[in-house]
Design a protein that fits this description.
mainly alpha, 2 helices
Length: about 70
């Protein structure tokens, strides 16, 4: 069995690090969109007006989305 040397540091692993940063940016963008769009959908489509109901709508949407993923 040939053991390869592990390369540590950002210089050696810049491709993986760049991919990680890009994925985190996309996830952060999705969370931001979810927090702004989902309450509007809840208010307009389902007639949800209360802040408590909007928060519970966001939580239930997040749980369903997490289970679907």
């Amino acid at each position: 069995m040939n053991a390869t040397a592990v390369a540590l540091g950002l210089k050696a692993n810049w491709k993986q690090f760049s991919l990680l940063v890009l994925i985190n940016a996309f996830v952060g963008g999705m969370v931001g969109i979810e927090r702004t769009v989902v309450p509007l959908i809840g208010a307009e489509e389902f007639g949800v007006a209360s802040s408590t109901l909007i928060v519970s709508f966001i939580v239930s949407f997040g749980v369903v989305k997490a289970c679907a993923n």
